[in-house]
Amino acid sequence: xxxxxxxxxxxxxxxxxxxxxxxxxxxxxxxxxxxxxxxxxxxxxxxxxxxxxxxxxxxxxxxxxxxxxxxxxxxxxxxxxxxxxxxxxxxxxxxxxxxxxxxxxxxxxxxxxxxxxxxxxxxxxxxxxxxxxxxxxxxxxxxxxxxxxxxxxxxxxxxxxxxxxxxxxxxxxxxxxxxxxxxxxxxxxxxxxxxxxxxxxxxxxxxxxxxxxxxxxxxxxxxxxxxxxxxxxxxxxxxxxxxxxxxxxxxxxxxxxxxxxxxxxxxxxxxxxxxxxxxxxxxxxxxxxxxxxxxxxxxxxxxxxxxxxxxxxxxxxxxxxxxxxxxxxxxxxxxxxxxxxxxxxxxxxxxxxxxxxxxxxxxxxxxxxxxxxxxxxxxxxxxxxxxxxxxxxxxxxxxxxxxxxxxxxxxxxxxxxxxxxxxxxxxxxxxxxxxxxxxxxxxxxxxxxxxxxxxxxxxxxxxxxxxxxx
Length: 470
What we know:
Blueprint: E1 2-3, E2 14-23, E3 27-34, E4 40-45, E5 50-55, E6 58-60, E7 74-82, E8 86-93, E9 98-104, E10 112-119, H1 132-153, H2 158-164, E11 177-183, H3 200-216, E12 221-225, H4 235-244, E13 249-256, E14 267-271, H5 279-288, H6 291-295, H7 308-337, E15 349-351, E16 363-370, H8 374-381, H9 383-403, H10 410-416, E17 425-427, H11 434-440, H12 445-451, E18 464-466
Parallel strand pairs: 2-6, 11-12, 11-13, 13-16, 14-15
Antiparallel strand pairs: 1-4, 2-3, 3-10, 4-5, 5-8, 7-8, 9-10, 14-16, 17-18
Helix pairs in contact: 1-7, 3-9, 7-9
């Protein structure tokens, strides 16, 4: 038997108004809606596997047979009383789990909640993880880029870092460009609620699925969803999933809401390191960043292996480049959205969204429309409008990468098949190294890297390089 720490609170009568489950690929979250704070104890038993939740001086105020267990680790739910006035809830489990729990205080939407998370050891958070070969290629590119950034931050010669990893040209992998599509909110966090009762979390999941389908239908691209059902993913976890899947780009899909029913239109937001570009951008970021208070999770970017000054310089260097790419893609997405819906803002806005704070992955947050506006709420529920918005988001991302394809991508290989005969161009041959090509043309390795926007230091056979003037 494995005991978990108990939450201790002053004993007082409390009702369990509901028990809700949110099933994800790698865990299930169980939420007890409580009328008041309670003392709780949560522990696991084996042979057979069970999870037991004891609530002191509490009683059920609903029919537990109505609880939808869904596709989760829980087969059945049983309830009973013990020690007179205490409530015991037993969950019969069908697999190994690791549990942890916490009590959440009341918010605007909920009262007290006891949250019990059952994690599935060894299970991934996504149904379709990235191809391991593509992951290895992306790792090589990102490691080389980080090494260059660190050399700059520490005042060392970037050329030395390039020379250290100088190697012969490798076969072109023609890899897919990986796009993380993030449906906002989910689970116990419904997001904004329209005047007709429409939940933002449902609308944006439908649109995000269509974005994924549209991107995957384009050769050279692979999209995945950070959630593909109705459960909550923490804001930091969303960016962590993008990093784990080696995403080239991250787009978070939302539906705006304000107290007034008047505003309409789509908006596109990128991260700002400083102030927000408008008061509405600041307000929206503060609103979206509260999601983890409702979801009851949090996380932090781990740069603990770097000293404080170096951390700051590295983040500044990385995020400047990342934000420039984000704004570039944002302009393309905004242009495409303007063809299918009114624009609420005519330029890409910037604010401090937590979900966009992945320093090495360009990211956007798209507000598809105002769910608080009755007519736009109806549009957001329309499959036809959802399709148009999804295609606009996907087309904007695709348009950017067609102009700026990563060197190891299929798009870059296709572009290079049409190049190579102009002055100042060189097609990489088998056996070439970056240092040899640089020496042959009397330029530096760094010059070639910067002229071709290389994300790593590996040359690919058949790749066409622009040779800068010496």
